[in-house]
Every structure is written in structure tokens, then in C-alpha cells.
Design brief:
The chain has 9 helices and 13 strands. With about 280 residues, it is an alpha/beta fold. A 7-stranded mixed sheet has the order 1-11-10-4-9-8-7, with helices on both faces. A 4-stranded antiparallel sheet has the order 3-2-5-6, with helices on one face. Strands 12-13 form a two-stranded antiparallel ribbon. Helix 4 packs antiparallel against helix 5 and helix 5 packs parallel to helix 6. The longest helix has 14 residues.
Length: about 280
């Protein structure tokens, strides 16, 4: 099933941050990893990418960040093809936080966040850089930790520092590849709540479906490298579509004591016959 959902908030060119059309990508062995994927990202909105393992989520994020080149298709950043934008300008307009980011833990939090100012070298004053880093540390709740080393941070705090470094780039688009990976349940909620509060256009790869309804304005579901659905999250994560893509049911339930919904996965546990020795 390949569903292109109606967009409830019609995008206009001046509101578009990114427009990607027909993106395909093949690995070194020629195997197709992505096939004909299209999406848009608008100013101030959060877009989630989800799909089973091997669906092409991280590859798509890296292509949209300009790290990988698609085999075919086009990406426009604003009105300009991304292929026509220099790497330095792209770094000022797109901030990417990948799964495998492992900073030098001896760095102070302030110095690590300050690395986000590198794309502005020669274009910004020292005073401006200091002010941006200070403002970002405040927004991400890292002021009290700013002068300590990264090695003192918890997993959730380190992820916040990575997001803060990306924010220091002052980019118009933030791309996060599984920012909740390896975090405990509370830290996952805190990180996504922070991202949603930033007011920056954000594309976020998430593998936990139950986190998406409260976080994302729109959702792209990938299945075997193709778009299975893209549109408002409540529609893209309908029971029918989720069941087709993941083989499980996503249930939206009323919270027993609060006026809000809960997202719950109904995951089947097949019963296997025990093996008998001979």
C-alpha cells in the first residue's frame, strides 16, 4: 500500500523549508535502499520519519542533510536546488545530529556547543558567537553544566548538548536521527519535548511509534524504501496503515485520569512449541 495523504495545511512556496521529490538511493551493491520518496518540511513544523528496520530512514535523513547524494530525484532548500548550495552555506542552513555522534568527553559543554559556530567563522564576531552559545545553553537547560566536561553528563543531557550544538548553527532546519536512542523512558520524553518547543523546523527519525503522536505535526512512514504514507500524524498513523507497515496495532486510548490520549502498541507474542530432546 502506497498512500499519499491529503495535506491539511496547504504548503505555499514561501513557507517551505525543504521540498524533496522522487528521491531514490542505491547501495554500493546496486540494491535499492530508497525508491521515489517525496516530502516537504515547512517553517516551524516537526516531521517524523518512521518505518521498520532497514526501511531507509537514516539514509533519507543523511540525503536531506546533504551528507549523501541521491541516485535520482531533487531536493530544494527554499527555492534553490541543494546541489547548487555550497557545503558551508548548507551547514548554516541545515543542522544534523546523527546516531553515531561521539564527542570528545574532555570538552566542556560550553566549548562543545560552541562548535556549532564553526560554519559562521569569518562571518560572525566573537561577541555574537558568545551570545549565541549562551542563549542556546539557556534554551536547552544546560547553563549550570556549561563549564563542566561532557563526561559528567547523563545520556539525556549529552543528547541535549548535541541538540544545543546544532542550534548554535542558527540553521533553519534541524535533522535528528533517532535522538531518543539508548535513553531511558523519562529522558526520551524530555528530549522530544525540548525539540518540539524550539520553534525550528525539525525532521526527526524515530523508531518508537508511541512517541510520535504527541511530537510530530506530520509523519512519513517508509516501508522497504518506499513511502507508505505521508501526511498529518493522526492520519498517517491510522490503525490500518500502521498494521500494514509494521504488522502491529497502534491504539489511541483515553488517559484514565487526565484529559489526553495515550498511544499504546498491541504487540503479538507468538507461542512457540517447546523443543524436546531426543
Amino acid at each position: 500500500m502506497d498512500v499519499r495523504l491529503p495535506d491539511e495545511l496547504a504548503a505555499t512556496p514561501e513557507k517551505l523549508i525543504v521540498e524533496a521529490n522522487g528521491l531514490s538511493y542505491s547501495g554500493d551493491n546496486g540494491q535499492a535502499i530508497l525508491s521515489g520518496v517525496s516530502l516537504t518540511i515547512r517553517s516551524g513544523e516537526t516531521v517524523a520519519i518512521a518505518g521498520p528496520n532497514g526501511a531507509g530512514k537514516s539514509t533519507l535523513a543523511r540525503i536531506l542533510a546533504g551528507i549523501e547524494q541521491p541516485s535520482s530525484g531533487e531536493i530544494r532548500l527554499g527555492a534553490v536546488p541543494i546541489s547548487g548550495i555550497s557545503s558551508s552555506e548548507r551547514s548554516r542552513r541545515i543542522a544534523y545530529v546523527g546516531q553515531l555522534s561521539e564527542p570528545d568527553r574532555r570538552l566542556s559543554v560550553r566549548d562543545y556547543v560552541g562548535l556549532g559556530r564553526i560554519p559562521h567563522a569569518g562571518l560572525s564576531s566573537a561577541a555574537k558567537d558568545i551570545a549565541v552559545v549562551a542563549e542556546v545553553l539557556e534554551r536547552t537547560g544546560l547553563q549550570r553544566l556549561a563549564d563542566g566536561p561532557l563526561k559528567w553528563l547523563s545520556g539525556g543531557e549529552l543528547q541535549r548538548a548535541s541538540i544545543a550544538r546544532a542550534l548554535a548553527q542558527e540553521a533553519e532546519l534541524l535533522i535528528l536521527d533517532e535522538p531518543t536512542n539508548h535513553l531511558d523512558a523519562r529522558a526520551k520524553g524530555e528530549v522530544l519535548s525540548l525539540v518540539a518547543s524550539l520553534g525550528v523546523a525539525c525532521l526527526c527519525v524515530l523508531h518508537e511509534l508511541t512517541l510520535i503522536p504527541q511530537f510530530a505535526d506530520r509523519t512519513l512512514l517508509l516501508k522497504e524504501g518506499r513511502s507508505a504514507a505521508f501526511g498529518p500524524t493522526a492520519v498517517a498513523l491510522s490503525k490500518e496503515i500502521v498494521s500494514d507497515v509494521f504488522g502491529v496495532d497502534l491504539l489511541i486510548l483515553q488517559h484514565p485520569t487526565e484529559n489526553r490520549d495515550l498511544s499504546v502498541l498491541d504487540i503479538p507474542f507468538p507461542k512457540f512449541l517447546p523443543t524436546t530432546g531426543t
